[in-house]
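In response to a reviewer's request, we include the raw inputs and outputs for one of the modeled complexes. The two entities were modeled together in a single run.
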Amino acid sequence: MQDWFIALIMMMVYLVIALAIGMFAGRGRGGSLNEFVVAGGKLGMFVMLFLMGGAVLSAFSFLGAPGWAFTRGAPAYYIIIYIAFAILPWYLIGPKIGRIGRKYGLYTLVGFLQTRYKLKTLGVLVGIIALLGFIQYLATQMKGMAYIFNIMTDGRIPFWLGALLAYGIVVIYVATGGLRAAAWSDVFQGILMIVISWTIGLAVVFQLHGSPSSMFMNIHEMDPGFLQIGKEGSTMSSVGFTTTILVSLMGFLMWPHLFSKSYASRPKTIKKTVLAYPVFALFLIPLLLAGFAAVGVVEQGTVEADEILPYLITTVLELPGWLYGLVGAGALAAAMSSADAITHSASLEFTSGVVQNIKEDLSEKTVLIIMKVAVITIGGLAYFVTIFGGQGLIALLLGAYGSIVQFAPGVYGALYSKRISGVGVTIGLVAGTVINYYYQLAAPATPFDIHAGIMGLMVNILIVVVVSLIQKPKQEEVVEGYTKAS
Amino acid sequence: MSKQKFEWIYCSVLLVTFLPVVFPVFELANHTTPLVLGLPFSFFWVLMWVIIAFITVICLYFVDPEKDNDEGAE
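The model returned the following structure tokens for the whole complex.
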């Protein structure tokens, strides 16, 4: 049998298993709104760990991280740093958000902000930015899926079909089974991903270089700056490195699909999930090693950064077809386990931020139907953007993706301050988003190489502080309710 | 230990373990040699602080006054 055929069969088997697990997990749970949105609020630690881990380790980690190591060198460490440290604040804020959620019946980030600040504009704004950011996130995952199918079958499965197959399955199990389906398929996908990345990462290093030591010594002798940051020959400045970490770190828990997991579990589960999390952060080590292994072996510029891992497997190394298939399945697992959580959350945020703000008195049953329709609509939208999206649209989405971190002042303010003003948060969010768009897309460079998101965040925080000091604080029950939960 | 005090200690631990992996402190480790466990010193340094952070957080969990407060359980 030919290699591509074996690989294709393995990937199809993987897809069937993922679909079966997703469909099976969601069955027989009564199909209530609460079950769909937060799985009854009682996901256990094991499932929660994989849900968080699976959402974070996406096509970006599986294909992007080796790409960073290959083209940028040492700055790739930023990925491990932010993924490891970003989860830690959740230990403190996760249980608080969960408590607030139970008190006020919340299940989204939009709901969290709107209940505290009582501003429709803010809710709609957050709903729209989140939706655009989500579509960008989904598009990245889908490109990963499509690309993997394409390269592993020597171009026999076209882009549109690969994305449709893999993402179609995600949409089906999310629409039918909600959060629980996403969670259980993430357990399967997560285990697969960890095993595959360690196997492949180490195999690549040992086959090409004999050992990690000789690999790194070779790179060091060839180009010492490559393994340093902010030095001659380095690919990133020290300010760039630090602010990129900061923005990713703070933005992480502001992603609604991660934020809203606080509602789906009890405090003890959240805390234990944080403790067990390094398993996922360490999953990036072999992927970075694989990227470094390509340095000096593959000439820079011959392949796109994100394509280096599959390129190594299929072109540089002579590996059997079943190994192709394994890498293919691993990459699909990485992309799909992010796509399911995001699709689920996007449908929730959109329904609560936009639909329920326009029409208020909807019955629970109607809301559930709207959410399921939203899963399919958002899924379809993201698919068309991925396959047919033009330059302008892509820029719009990229800007929104970079603007998620601008939710942070509003979230932390609600948890820790009685004075913080909703008007301030709204104006700050708009200003921060505009500045982020400007520096990310229009300006040639930022001052001192500071990350565009941090530029926006500085102005955002300044506005929030100034407006909150000017405005008289409101005496409301909900203000107390939020900070008391802390 | 009171809840406030625990939160304060938790945040300090976060800061102390995080600062070494960003500039300016990271400059101390911003070089390739000596290799440790086959990895560049800077890579090893990053992993070391990640592991230290998580070990400390695991220890903190055991002294968390709210550890067994599991409201929402039925």
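As requested, we also summarize the result in words. The two ends of chain A are 61 Å apart (CA to CA). Chain A touches chain B through 47 residues (CB under 8 Å).
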